[in-house]
């Protein structure tokens, strides 16, 4: 069953424990990837927004009205390349290691401290437009009987590059 949020995801940096986007749209069809953010104004580029282009080896900003931060991901959603503050009418690096690209508002990479090698989680939005908090697990190095120092960490979701299951 498809819902209105099926094309909306959040992006969480598991390595830095910070959100890159809380309202990212998935562009996984021919026309959605072709159009991307064309026609969007600077009002789109608010913190928390994003566009995840799947599949993609690189992007361009020809016809764009504002700058972007770009994060290039491999098939396991590890950051393989970043480009900060890419201005309009530019062409990004083309990387064969890349399987998808995240387009984010400018300064997102700096604000979150995202670096090459970081692992990201891309999951469908919860019902109230925020990440579900039910998928948590304990760190394995903690003894199961000791709950005083137990910390919880997010579980990487079961999304593939072409579909996400809730």
Task: Provide an overview of this structure.
The protein has 166 residues and is mostly beta strands. The protein has 2 helices and 9 strands; from the N terminus they run ββαββββαβββ. It has helices at residues 30-35, 108-112; strands at residues 8-13, 18-27, 49-53, 68-73, 79-86, 100-104, 120-124, 136-138, 152-154. The strands form 2 sheets. A 7-stranded mixed beta sheet has the order 5-4-6-3-2-1-7. A two-stranded antiparallel sheet has the order 8-9. The chain is globular, with a radius of gyration of 16 Å. It starts with 7 loop residues before the first strand and ends in a 12-residue tail after the last strand. Mean pLDDT is 79; it is low at 1-5 and 131-166.
